[in-house]
Amino acid sequence: MRDSSDPAAAGRDIATIRALLAPANPVPDTAPTEVERQHGERVLRTLLATLDQPSGRAARGGLFAPRRTYPRPRALVTAAGLVLAIAALLVGGTVLRTGDSATAAPLLPAPLLTATAGDHAAAVRALTRAAELQRGLSPAGVGPVLYARSQTYGLDVTVAQHKSTTVARTTIIDFWQRPDGSKRIRKYLQNIDRAGGNVGGPAPMEDRINRMGQGEFPLGPPDHDPSKSPTDATQLRTLLSSRNAAAGHPGDLGIVLDVISLLSSGLTSPQQNAAIYDVLAQIPTVFDAGAIRDRAGRPGHAIGVVASDHTSLVVGTQYVIFSDTGAPLTIEMVDTPNAPPGLHLPPGPTIARYTQIITASRVHTVGDTH
């Protein structure tokens, strides 16, 4: 690590790390050179060692194994500045672009919509039109592997010893599914911070491996695979009704939650989307929310549907935003009039979670993004 008295050198380190971290932006402006990559890795190893071992002892091995002991106290100032620069890159400047952008969410973003009721007939018309458009389209891309990239935001609660900690997370997720149903999931944690007023609770799970990690997952039950869901609305509703009845959850609420989950996966085909929209159009609480732009600035049309019942302390409403071709763009759940009291959040409508689908296509092999 360079001494803090050399700001030009520190600036070059920041530029190098910015290039190295370009993969955190799924569509980076420029790829790092090999020299920049190697230099950035050395700087990051030293930074992480400094943060993990403030006592000055050699760091233990881990995800980023250091090659040296810790720098002098003056260099630690530079390290802190670089960490802040990295935080700014990951939290405030990570941009998903497919012609449109979506940055990491602020700690408690404002809901796009808050209405809990509206014109049911208009929603049915909008969903029927979206279904017709989707039914006539072919899946994007070519290849045997399903690929989806999304940005998710959500509130998580950690509870221990009669105390709770609420954290907000924004994550970029790359998801590949092979023809046999096995999956690879890669995650980039854009932002995590405590959101609730009770900061005396347990520490949230935020280890480094969860900030940028990936894993392989085996084949799951076919009837829970979004890519295998029926393309016929009657068959889809029958399947979901039977599943929820067997689980002791009869009625529309379970169906609403299931179809929202299917859409949020990014793995459904246009024909499967059409069946989902037709099922949503049958839900009595669905309502029209009008034209809107999602968090990536993409124009679309929104419908809302109540996703809570009388046992809930708040009214949970799911909003589905789809494009002018009917493709799902963003699914957002908002609690009104306030968040559940146990979260210790400021009063007012609160986003419980959202999923913003950036890319959904077929690719040739796991790891491909187009």
TrEMBL record:
InterPro entries (UniProt xref): CU044_5270-like (IPR047789)
Transmembrane segments: 75-96
Keyword Membrane among record annotations: yes
Region span, Disordered: 213-232
Keywords in alphabetical order: Membrane, Transmembrane, Transmembrane helix
Keyword Membrane in annotation: yes
UniProt name for this protein: Uncharacterized protein
